[in-house]
Amino acid sequence: MSEEDIIRFASGLPGVEVVTASEANAAPEVAWGDTFFFYDPDGDIPTNRRLPFATIVTKDYPGFDTASRLDRPGVFRVNIAVGRHAYQDLFGHPPAAYPDHQASYDYSAIDQPVPHPVYARQAWISILSPGEATADQLRSLLTEAHARAAARHRPR
Asked: In Å, what is the CA distance from 48 to each residue of 32, 89, 117?
């Protein structure tokens, strides 16, 4: 799957706003080229109050997030907020226990789900350059993350 395939899929989900960080939208320079998926069906959530349910990151963030080795040609990372239950189903431990398991993951492995190297404790997962092995799983995880974001958005 290409970045464009993922953007096309996620932007087809109801109420999704897709933002690719750039100078034009006043994003921090370090994020330029990264894509963020928000649930904002009415387009009225203030920019500083929106939280993405998924992102595509295209480069390492030196000094902060380099475990995925995104400096390799053609490698990008899809990050998804899957929630505690899905995270535990995927990895066999809750997000809170991530520090005990952190060393057992290869964060640079292509086309397989791994805990997010920085935000695993918040129940985020990552897939580098998703392909045949994870394409269906990725679409399912994005759909579930979208549904969770929509449920949080609804008035209680």
From this structure: 17, 32, 24
